[in-house]
């Protein structure tokens, strides 16, 4: 076994504490990665809060990270020691179902193995995440980090980035497409950057005009204030694609009203039951969809696209020793737009 150091949650409400723990020895198709930067995701907050329900006694969060390969298994040919890599929230899948064969390992019929809180497919152990100095991962689920990407700002691409990239590409967003992004947070700001880079006419929808300057800086062409009924009415049936990244419960009807005929609202932020009036879909043949994470081909393509178009997250980089402060501020939405932990202080 390999010993590393990381930040562990033991129970809801308690501060994460620095601990030593063991990683597996490298299998033939594994790479060991020195974790340099790991994004802090709302999923981490949810997982820590759910500890009492799951009964888990040990949780090391973190599922969007970049680092450097420090060792490889004997069958690994894709990487060498010293290579810069990125790893997301999926670290294995069955590889044989229809979804996996289609390159959509995120929809694996046997459920993908998650970077933390998942079940290892070979030994049944619980996976421990990347709020740590080292991670051991199957080589197929590590991605070369393009040289043009800053490794700290690239870390959130492996979760927030791929989550918005998936529907943008699936819905054919490109030049001439009219795209709206509802919510300008960790997901939303990357949706704006990627939509603009794809050539779309991009608009931000926000509860107030406070983020107008940020929206323009990110490349958006317009901002609609969702609490202004005149602005919402003027934008009715305007957008081919609406990416909804709002994380709290909200009515979809007003946003479906902004979708054009045969357009799509892709709901990404609120992972909970929603209620939809059929008439909001019927009038205009509108579609309601969703997406989550991405498969290996899409993740690799996204990283290359981001390097070519200089797209990365807007981050606040903090030493990992301030992880509890970062989680507390994230819970208050006090970040623009993504915290990233610098794990070098665990050396």
UniProtKB/TrEMBL annotation:
EC number in record: 1.1.1.2
Gene3D superfamilies according to UniProt: Medium-chain alcohol dehydrogenases, catalytic domain, NAD(P)-binding Rossmann-like Domain
Enoyl reductase (ER) domain ranges (all copies): 13-341
Cofactor(s) demanded: Zn(2+)
Annotated catalysed reactions: a primary alcohol + NADP(+) = an aldehyde + NADPH + H(+)
InterPro entries for the chain: ADH-like_C (IPR013149), ADH-like_N (IPR013154), ADH_Zn_CS (IPR002328), CAD-like (IPR047109), ER (IPR020843), GroES-like_sf (IPR011032), NAD(P)-bd_dom_sf (IPR036291)
A GO molecular-function descriptor: zinc ion binding
SMART domains hit by this protein: PKS_ER (SM00829)
UniProt keyword list: Metal-binding, Oxidoreductase, Zinc
Pfam families per UniProt: ADH_N (PF08240), ADH_zinc_N (PF00107)
Enzyme class (EC, first level): oxidoreductase
PANTHER family for the chain: ALDEHYDE REDUCTASE (PTHR42683)
Family: Belongs to the zinc-containing alcohol dehydrogenase family.
Protein name: alcohol dehydrogenase (NADP(+))
Organism of this sequence: Amycolatopsis echigonensis
